[in-house]
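Hi! If you just cloned this repository, the fastest way to understand the data is to look at a raw example. We've pasted two of them here, unedited. The first protein comes first, obviously.
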Amino acid sequence: MALQLVALSFVLVLVSLLAAEGQKEPDPTVQGAPRETATCRRPQWDWRLWLAPDQDNYKENEEVMLSCPKGFQPSFTRVKCVREVQSTSFGTHVYREVWDGKLSGGGWVRIQSYVACVATCRRPQWGSRLQLAPDQDNYKENEEVMLSCPEGFQPSFTHIKCVREVQSISYGKPEYREVWHGRDSGGGWVRIRSNVACVEVLQVVPGTLEVSSTSIKLNWTCRLPDACQNMQATCRAMPSSPPCEAEEVKGEEMLHGQEGTFTCPPLQPFTDYSVTISLPLGTILFSWLVRTEGTVPDKPEELWLDPSTGSLRWKALPSCQGEIIGYQLNITTRSTQDGAFLETERLRLSSSVTEHPLPEYGPGSSYAVTMQGLTAAGAGAASLWEFQSNSSHTPHPLDISCRSVRDISPSQGTAVLLLHPIAHPNEAAREHQLIVAATHNGTGVEGACVGEPQPFNASQQPGAYMAAVLNLTTSTDFVLGDGTRGQGYHNAALRLGSDYTALLRLVHRSQQVEKFTCVCYSFSVVAGQPPGSWRGTVIGVVVLLAIFLLSAGILWLVLSRKRKSLPSKAKEDN
């Protein structure tokens, strides 16, 4: 009986154990299933850590902020507790507390070690162009930081680290200060005693940049010799468009040492070039975009006459040698009716103008036109065209046939000119200038007509000089060479054996036009010419005429008497 009772008790215990083992842990995802809220105890880390919120227990996944006293920083500023299954015993999970820390990028990682307040340094307040990696507001003690600068610059130290040294002791506690050390070129660490700044590796010496129409030159100095190894300087033409296409320039030079001069090879005027000094890996130390100086333009190639309007037309010059700011147009007019007449207009026209009417265009006129392009550097080469208004054949210039001078006195060095006013009938009389040039050359005559006469110099061969200033209203005889002087003129005596051209000139000037109208007189002062020759000739002619008239009178008287004597003789004969 006792044995049966023992067997029955064993069976009941076994059934209860099986029933307990067959029970399942409630699924927390099933609504209504009760589950106790998981918590974590306050972590036992550095006693200097401040936790917020400050509690003894924290819920699972509750985020906690960590902070430290001034001058220190926790290895993580945000943490949270998670519970992970450590083991399973008799169907029941055994959990353990685990803390995760938040990274600066936002992710969470398992905290594998003790979280402590670590001594830190604040971000150094150096140059604004200085770039720090990693880029943080605080750095741990002895944490190595890399420094860099924008292209063309370099920091005085490329690697730094912060250390904390005791500054003083207060109430038995040390007070620290932040000190930064930098790694020198030998790999050692030295204390940084001044601000670290971005230093320009290569400096172009101020005031040495020289730019002309065909070259670019600069002097350079390397301020960090270790960073200036294998530098290369290049000149490159920037892209351009027709008709001013820039030629490719092969301007490359290796730079050595700590200073030197770089000169680009022969370049084109008024062209954009890029001057670059760089290191082998493409780091640009210096870059400059510059335009060479302009020069005078090429001469115009296309100009023609529009017969229907009597206007000159031309093709605008391109701004290849320099910005075209205008055109200089000289128009010389000659007349078939009066070879001594010469009129020249000098005009300054805008760069936008491509046509201009010929003055007094009509039959019997010949025109010589010179045109020059203008840039800031001056006037370019001149092109010459000649037109004749009354001929369809190839134009040719009319010869200058100056008026003659008959009353020349070599002994006195004078000549008498018969001058007529040049002013047109509808114009008021203006000041006339009498210019003397020691030449018979047609080109020299044209130059004297439009040129600025120089003061007469008796010790030199005379050029074109001002002999007189006259207010002509009627024709008058003027004695050239009588020695009179005035403000700006000298009527010097003529030299024996010289050829002269005298020009009676009228000048009209406005803001854009200069007009020179001249009448020329040509003569030579030769030995043996009698003074007053034309007057002697006139007297001789008058005397001869008187003798002729007297002879004719005498002959008439003789014949008259002979006719009267004939009838009386006839009567006597009868």
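Ok, and the second one:
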Amino acid sequence: MSGRTTAPYGSWKSPITAEMVSGADKRLSGFAIAGDGRLVWIECRPEEKGREVLVKEPEKSEEKPQDLIPENFAARSLAQEYGGGAFAIKNNIIIFSNYTDQRLYKHSIGGLLPEPITPDFGGPSIRYADGVFDSHFNRYISVMEDSCESSLNPITTIASIPFSNNGEIHEPKKLIGGNDFYAFPRVDPSGKRMAWIEWSHPDMLWDKSQLWVGYFSENGEISKRVCVAGGDPALVESPTEPKWSSNGELFFITDRKSGFWNIYKWIEQKNEVAPVYSLNAEFTRPLWVFGINSFDFLEKNGVNRIICSYRQNGRSYIGVLDYEIGSFSPLDIPFSDVSNIVSGNDYFYVEGASSTQPLSIAKVTLSENLSEIKEFSVVWSSSPDLTKYKSYFSSPEIIEFPTEISGQNAYAYFYPPSNSDLQSSSDEKPPLLLETHGGPTWEARGVLDLNVQYWTSRGWAFVDVNYGGSSGYGREYRERLLGQWGVVDVNDSCSCAKFLVENGKVDRERLCVTGRSSGGYTTLASLAFRDVFKAGASLFGIADLSLFRAEIHKFESHYIDNLAGTEKDCFDKSPINSVDKISCPVILFHGLDDKVVPPEQARKIYKALKEKGVPVALVEYEGEQHGFRKAENIKFTLEQQMMFFARLVGSFEVADHINPIKIDNFD
């Protein structure tokens, strides 16, 4: 500790600025390998107001990646509002969904202008996602969402779009329909079969789904179909991610019997499924966006393997699976968190991160027998210049803490304050910012995130909670939230904060809470129904469950019923109906184009808190949807949260020069 200047927690000067955070908040939205073996990916660029750009890996590492589409195009699907699965590639031909009109476009790598292959319906009323090439019938097969008749209840199908040599545009043709939702249409190498996932209200895919295989007739229609998994009413499971090997074997992931998503194989002759490798770990994650790719095939010199990863005890493990004998050989790579994987013959690309490595894509080349790493190289990083700030980084500690249910524990990542230049006096405890993740069926992950380091390098403690109901820990843990949203998540968040206080980690009088989307709901509910936190920030969060239930889009229209309960339960659990119990300051941020959680949610509780006399502020952003994508808004949100908490509960002066916004009932 010698050589450090002593200063109060929260007042520390840090080189990790909000501007740096906003610039580093690049996201990935899928990747695939082009015909020449190089990677193509979609990156979201805050500096371009959140535009999503198709980019190709350069031929030489010292060269810059190549943008593939003109500046007036953006590769982003709005299917199910959350999108994903916006492009597919075959050789040097890309099919992608264009953001503004949601039409599908065909584009040759190195070509001039993309050409539309779907009709113009006068607006983005038809959306496409999760598509694949079907070379056998010279067409593209995609999930299609048609909202021409109803924006709240669009019709979802799997459709085919014929390719034309003369530029003629054809109407999409329905291949599969009748159910509420579809995903993962996947054509086998012979072009004779197609696998897909479907599910029905009131379930989400991770609650219960079905895997089907259909057989193509001579004219390309589905002539017959069989249910591979999810059809037995006595067996609750949620199959996902079907994928054909090069020799026509179907593999997929499901959580039957064990409650953990493991890899299985379909035995076509018997229409039976068999486990490939069993482990109390999660080999995939909930489908919030299309295009999840948790495993792929490695094939070289007659050696056939699966490259895959799994989550267990708060971290990811990656390895090679010999699916003939069911053995898993771990690979040691510098990622403790893995999302998507795509493979070539003896190499693969992996999207990952760690506590010292920001979100990145790495290329991993394997040995001849596909069992050892020959080379590991990062081909893309969300923040490539971070190493010079390493001395300011806080590393997460995985903590397990008791919940209010006897014998049940929950988990979190705790980041203590860290700054190589500054320290606090030994008798001071730091303020805490507790984050409640969105979803709520999702998972906080302990990786290098500048949104976190912004706080910890200024002398804040930060904790990211995986309350009961989070993914990553199996079905039983995930289902703790069924009927208990607004109870279990709130209790676990409060229990985590109290656990840190009792262990001498943080200051009881300076506990703050923040959350985005459903995490914003948990934040507001924690302030309304518990007396633990001293201030809160809700980012595009839910204040009125009844209103949310009435306006919610199709994908989540029954999700809230499963989580929150009856209409009366929704009323009772809505923070807007318990404003009289909120006595601490609240700041709200919302995008005016948000279709998932409309801005009226923030306006209602802002007005109610203002009338009650509670210190409150509301920030609204033109042109932002559900989640902020523009660099200037990401920066402003971070800075104003910091100033709000510092002024109202901090007992310190912020080192940065930030002009605070007006706080009603305070300024």
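That's it. A detail worth noticing about the second one: The mean pLDDT is 95.
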